Amino acid sequence: MAVYRAPMRSRSDEIDAHATRDRARRLGLCGFGRLTKSPAEQESLNRRVTRFTEVENGSFVWTRDDEGLFWLGRITGPYEYDTDDAAAAVDLVHVRPCDWLAEPLLEPNVPAAVIETFRRGGRNFQQTHHPSVDAETQRIWDSQRET
Could you tell me where the Basic and acidic residues compositional bias lies (predicted)? Predict the structure, then answer.
């Protein structure tokens, strides 16, 4: 399975990132928003949505909260566009079902490749490429699901 970085925050600084991530974890979702300002941004969004729909079920996603804690989830279902007003309010409308671990992880317990991906910044959903990240993430998932 592949491993992805899912910032789970709007591209707009006017949207509360905590509210977006809280809604995602509470409802068991992973995704991103829709805010665009130009036709070029709309084209870019369309490409991101297409890539997101093609992510394999069972793929892992990491996100990081405002306190710097890391959350690990696993995509469990197909893409949908969430038309709920509450989804629009937190700009989390392009979503997939996601099973999140109940507790976050501290940075020392997160694969180095995941940390490096977040250090690069950005707000895009993107794959983490490193030879060991899939196996390391699977081990974390398995050990945390057992507790």
Answer: 131-147
